[in-house]
Structure formats: C-alpha cells, structure tokens
Amino acid sequence: MRAIKIGLFGYGCVGQGLYQTINNSKNFEGEIVKICVKDRNKKRSLPTNLFTFNKEEILEDPSIDVIVELIDNAEAALEIVTTALKNGKSVVTANKKMVAENLEYLIDLQQKTGKAILYEGAVCGSIPIIRTLEEYFGHEPINEIKGIFNGSTNYILTKIFQEKMDYDQALEQAKEKGFAESDPTLDVKGFDPKYKLSILLTHAFGINVSPDKITNLGIDHLQSSDLEFAHKHGYGIKLIAQAIRKNDEVFACVLPQFIKADHNLRNVNNEFNAVTLNGEFCDDQLFIGKGAGSLPTGAAVLSDISALSYDYKYEYKKHYNQGKVHFNNDSEVTVYASFQKPEDIDLNEFEQVSDKYFCFDRSYVIGKIKLSKLLRSKWVYNSKISVIQFDQSDEFSNELDLKTLETEILELRKGQKLREKISV
Ligand SMILES: NC(=O)c1ccc[n+]([C@@H]2O[C@H](COP(=O)([O-])OP(=O)(O)OC[C@H]3O[C@@H](n4cnc5c(N)ncnc54)[C@H](OP(=O)(O)O)[C@@H]3O)[C@@H](O)[C@H]2O)c1
Hints:
Layout: E1 4-9, H1 13-24, E2 30-36, E3 51-52, H2 56-59, E4 66-69, H3 74-86, E5 90-93, H4 96-113, E6 117-118, H5 129-136, E7 142-148, H6 151-163, H7 167-176, H8 185-188, H9 191-205, E8 215-216, H10 224-232, E9 236-246, E10 249-259, E11 272-279, E12 283-290, H11 294-308, H12 317-321, E13 326-327, E14 332-339, E15 352-357, E16 363-370, H13 371-376, E17 386-389, H14 402-423
Helix pairs in contact: 1-11, 3-4, 4-9, 6-7
This protein binds NADP nicotinamide-adenine-dinucleotide phosphate (NAP).
C-alpha cells in the first residue's frame, strides 16, 4: 500500500495534535507533505519549507491524496473542502459548524465526485460516535441520543461546581488549555454542541436538520442564585445536547440541565464528553472520552485518514432508508427560569407553571414550555434571564393559576420600584 500524502490546512491546536499523533503512531503509512496557514508573521515549530500561504499549492497538487481541513473559519473551510472533493481528493475535517450547516450539500457532493469526507473529530473529539452509529447501529432504530457534547463548557461547569471558581476565570483556563473554540461564544452559548447534535441527527435518525431549527441555550446566563438552587436540591448543572424519538418524530435541543447525583452524566467532568444512546434492541449505551484538546482530536482525525486508506465512506444508511422519521420541535420541556425584573419574562408563553419563588433580588418560575417557543422568544436570550431544563424524570404536576401569578408579579414589581426609589 502506498503511503498517504496529506495536505493539511491549519496548524493550530488540532493541526499540531495531528502532527504529533502521526509522528508517534504505529503502523500508519502516511505523511504531511504541506501545511497551509494564514498568518505570515507567526513563528512555526517546523521547517518553513513545509508551510505555504497559498491554498492552490495543496489543492492543485496531484501528488496529494487527502486534504485534512483543520482551520477555524467555516466559510473558508467549505471552499477548501468543496475544491478538494471536486479535484478528486478525499477530505477529513473537524469543522462541525461547516459540516452541520452544509451536510445536505456535502452528501450530494460526495455522491457526485465519488470521493469521501469524514468528520469524526468534529463530534465529541475522541469518542468514535459517528462510525459507531454508521456501522454498528446502521440497522437498529435509535430511540434517544443525549450527552455532554462540549468540552470547554463541561470544563467551566466542573471548575465552578467543584472548585468554586468564578465563570470568567474558568473560561480563561478553558481557553488556555485549548478546549475552547477560537470564538468561545460558540461554546458557552451552546452553538458548538448544537452543530454536533445536528450532525448526529443525520447518522442516528437519518434526518438532516439545519442547526438554526434546533433550540440552543448555553451556560453564559447562569447566576449565583441558580447555583444555590442547584446545591440546595442536590443537583449539578451540565450542558446537555439531546435528541429523542417518539414514534416517527424526533425533537432535539441543547439546554443547560439540572442533573441528579445518581445520573450517569453527573460524574463526567472537565473536558470529557459523553454520549448516551438508547437503541431499540441494545437498550442503553454510554460512551465517554475527551471531547476536545490537541491530541484527542488529532487522534480522531488520524483515525479518519487511516480509514480513507481502505476507501472507507459514510453510507448514510438511515438517511437513505428511513424516510418516514421527521423532526418536530413542538415538544414540551420543563424548565426553571430565573429573573430579576418580572417584566423581562413572558409567563404567557408557558403551557403550565408548576412552582414559583418571588423575591426582590431574584425570582424563578418552574413550568412547561414548548421548544419552538424557547427558540423564538426574545426574553429567553436576555442575558439577565437564565433557563435550565429539568430531566424528564423530574415530575412537576402542580398547576398554578396564571391570573394569580400575574397579580403577584405586579405586586413584586411595585415593591421593587419602591425599593429602587428609596435607595436613590
Ligand atoms: N480545539 C479543539 O479541541 C477542537 C476539537 C474538535 C474540533 N475542533 C475543530 O477543529 C478546527 C481547528 O480548531 P483549532 O482549535 O485547531 O483552531 P486554532 O488553534 O485556532 O487554529 C486554527 C488554524 O487555522 C489556520 N487558518 C485559519 N484560517 C485559515 C485559512 N483561511 N487558510 C489557512 N489556514 C487558516 C490558522 O492559521 P495561523 O496559524 O496562521 O493563525 C491556525 O493554524 C475547528 O474547526 C474546530 O472547531 C477543535
């Protein structure tokens, strides 16, 4: 077998990790022949003749078999990947945003060009979930896929809960360690795990759902009173991505969630990710591994490059065979919503309110709301409001009268205004 000649785009956290894994791997027949990067002034740890700033030097080189795309810009990445496939080169990428936003197009392009694009490193770093869904679960209906899909937010939440670190300090550490995206808002606002979830919807259920149709909230609105609520009730908080099938309908979302002490995701900490999967025949499965970082992600990329050496391709079996399953985000979730000013929140958007705590400094309500409303409502994205989901096993059957609540809220606001006046 001929050694694979690799043209690499990007030599940052993952690109350097890939370089190291290739140099330290066993039985891998391949080498990086050129690396395209952007910044001409950056010092490099490798000889300068290995680098280029001209993408054509790699994309048009007939001796290069495989393009590995590891840059941090989704638009530029799509251009690179498209040209590579059209030029007859297979591709490995770890760019979840680019893959999630263009999956339908990329599937089509693979069919037209006969070349493959693999992206295991894009979803949960080192956990081999895509190939597992494609190969092992190719014929088994999946009921549920759920988990911690983002290493940096899990790292931040671990530091906040276990070491009482404040949010900004924990985020800085996540950045320093290379777990956070170049733009960390993608992590902390829940976009990164949403891209991954959107990709898994295709491989687990055979449905392509554009990320903008999936509800996502992050951990950046969490307040100290929310942490107190969690501690008081024995919960931890994790950012959970989930897709659940009920008959032929699948709903999906990314939300911070209260996690009980005995939950199987409670002790998945730091940059670790976890995927729990429930299959019709196999029942529950749990996969845990490092979801970010130079070497773990580099290893996932190396595994994909190696798979290309035996002409491996995703077959998208469920995508082609399971036409009747469709996406529906009208499902209800039970959430806790905490706020300071009651006029900031719209209680009428709740299907039912089961509990409330009203106080001058910070109040909360607990109730059922449709995911589609969470996606569209403006108040949800107000940085002073935090929304946290309860697990499906938490039951809230009580139903408070909305009219009475509204009166209580008016009283609360009057009291707050009076207090503001006195303090001026
Ligand atoms: N970090 C992780 O743990 C992790 C985990 C899973 C997936 N990923 C994904 O892997 C990809 C790379 O992430 P990263 O953390 O390695 O990013 P990074 O450390 O910020 O590195 C980005 C690299 O891309 C290069 N680059 C940017 N735009 C370019 C362009 N137009 N042409 C050529 N090179 C360009 C940069 O060049 P310069 O060196 O010249 O600046 C740099 O080398 C992203 O899609 C990310 O979502 C990352």
